[in-house]
């Protein structure tokens, strides 16, 4: 598994330097595994969410969206299995008292080994996890002499389960407060609203319910920047189908979701499907879409055939019927579900990694280089930078007019300061696909210079064509 830690570190630094991502509460030395999205990061993140939402709801007549609350009745999580089953094998170092997720510890060690050795170690780990063989997992850690990062010792406790849900209290008086959970996934908000949506939307099976929302997991070793965090965002869609048709729909959604990823211009060789070795308690099939990050192939999206587990569980615990009457076959049944679930933050990181490029532009005469983010125009935080060549001679006035014309349609940026070359470089670094320079010739013939980010080519176009050119590229 090839990794490029230097590139990964460069991307992390770039995110901070150019206003994409900041460590949360940084003035108080930050909070482990929690991040804030800056001015360009929040735009990019919103554009990713909008693109997903449009592709799921607007482009599918039989999929609708909801926005369920983060707080849910605590029995929800009993029914879903999270209270009893949402736990991971953990191990503590007796000297440092630091706790680790077993799979993270072994994965990190595998990355230090030769590719074949690392894969063999992970295959052993997968087999032991599948069998819930905690003694075997501890022996694997000890046999590989895996040390604690803090104490540097191999003095480990036994492996045991640790629940990953955050809990809190609802109620104004401590004695009367009820314990509830911060949701560890957004899916359950969809399941408990299945009948509400089906009846009010007069939905016929097959149909889907989509949602974007925050979820929370008490990850013990949150790592790899925003790849694994305690507070993150999911884009999930639950597709309700007739029992017995799940295999065909599972394959269809695998294909659909891969098409969506490739529609963003990513090299297909950067993606692959990875079937789950150990299935979740609710699934009869599951696969991850993995992308080749600089830190290796990692999961970005999961597609799961969840059977009728969730609705059946909620029907049992709530004692409310969660069934559908299918007029085509004159039958009542609990629908089966195919789930597509993608991490917004992981998709953000994928988009950054895929776009980031360091280019050497040196010539025989001079040294030159640039860092450019080659975002698809539809995702770029800023679509157009408007740059008057000077602050005088009426050029800013013309630039402001163009700004007023365009800003209703897409996000623009206006800048007068520094040389035009420096301004271009700054826009390259935040991924702006087009820069327009207003110069003295503009006053004569109403044309401007438009510069294309990826090729750095410049062309002279009529001022009134600028908006149309940018819109064309955004909507491609």
From TrEMBL:
Cross-referenced PROSITE patterns: AA_TRNA_LIGASE_II (PS50862)
Keywords: Aminoacyl-tRNA synthetase, ATP-binding, Cytoplasm, Ligase, Nucleotide-binding, Protein biosynthesis
Broad EC category: ligase
Positions of ATP binding: 217-219, 227-232, 299-300, 343-346
Catalyses which reaction(s): tRNA(Gly) + glycine + ATP = glycyl-tRNA(Gly) + AMP + diphosphate
InterPro entries xrefs: aa-tRNA-synt_IIb, aa-tRNA-synth_II, aa-tRNA-synth_II/BPL/LPL, Anticodon-bd, Anticodon-bd_dom_sf, Gly-tRNA_synthase/POLG2, Gly_tRNA_ligase_bac, GlyRS-like_core
Compartments (UniProt record): Cytoplasm
Protein name (database record): Glycine--tRNA ligase
Organism for this UniProt entry: Chitinophaga defluvii
Gene that encodes it: glyQS
């Amino acid at each position: 598994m090839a990794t490029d830690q230097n590139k990964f570190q460069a991307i992390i630094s770039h995110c901070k330097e150019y206003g994409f991502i900041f460590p949360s509460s940084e003035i108080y030395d930050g909070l482990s595994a929690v991040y804030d999205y800056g001015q360009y990061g929040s735009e990019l993140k919103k554009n990713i969410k909008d693109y997903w939402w449009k592709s799921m709801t607007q482009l599918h007549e039989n999929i609708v969206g909801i926005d369920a609350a983060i707080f849910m009745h605590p029995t929800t999580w009993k029914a879903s299995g999270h209270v009893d089953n949402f736990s991971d094998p953990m191990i503590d170092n007796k000297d440092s008292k630091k706790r680790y997720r077993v799979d993270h510890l072994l994965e990190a060690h595998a990355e230090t080994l030769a590719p074949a050795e690392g894969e063999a170690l992970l295959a052993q780990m997968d087999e032991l996890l599948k069998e819930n063989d905690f003694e075997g997992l501890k022996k694997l850690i000890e046999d590989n002499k895996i040390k604690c990062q803090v104490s540097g010792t191999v003095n480990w406790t036994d492996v045991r389960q640790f629940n990953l849900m955050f809990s809190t209290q609802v109620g104004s008086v401590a004695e009367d407060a009820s314990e509830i959970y911060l949701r560890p996934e957004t899916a359950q908000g969809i399941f408990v609203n299945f009948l509400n949506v089906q009846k009010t939307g007069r939905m016929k099976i097959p149909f889907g319910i989509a949602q974007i929302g925050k979820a929370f997991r008490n990850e013990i070793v949150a790592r790899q920047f925003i790849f694994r965090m305690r507070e993150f965002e999911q884009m999930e869609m639950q597709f309700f189908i007739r029992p017995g048709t799940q295999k065909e729909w599972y394959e269809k959604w695998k294909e659909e979701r891969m098409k969506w990823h490739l529609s963003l211009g990513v090299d297909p060789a950067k993606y692959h499907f990875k079937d789950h070795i150990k299935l979740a308690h609710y699934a009869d099939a599951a696969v991850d879409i993995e992308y080749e990050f600089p830190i290796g192939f990692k999961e970005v999206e999961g597609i799961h055939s969840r059977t009728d587990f969730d609705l059946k569980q909620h029907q049992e615990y709530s004692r409310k019927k969660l069934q559908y009457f299918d007029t085509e076959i004159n039958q009542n049944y609990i629908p089966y579900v195919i789930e597509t679930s993608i991490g917004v933050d992981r998709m953000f990181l994928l988009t950054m990694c895929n776009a980031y490029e360091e280019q050497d532009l040196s010539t025989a005469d001079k040294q030159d280089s640039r860092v450019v983010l080659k975002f698809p125009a539809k995702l770029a935080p800023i679509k157009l930078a408007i740059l008057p060549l000077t602050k005088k001679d009426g050029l800013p006035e013309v630039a402001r007019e163009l700004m007023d014309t365009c800003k209703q349609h897409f996000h623009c940026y206006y800048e007068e300061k520094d040389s035009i070359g420096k301004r271009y470089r700054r826009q390259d670094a935040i991924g702006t696909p087009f820069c327009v320079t207003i110069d003295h010739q503009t006053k004569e013939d109403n044309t401007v210079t438009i510069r294309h980010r990826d090729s750095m080519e410049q062309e002279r176009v009529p001022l009134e064509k600028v908006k149309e050119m940018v819109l064309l590229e955004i909507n491609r």
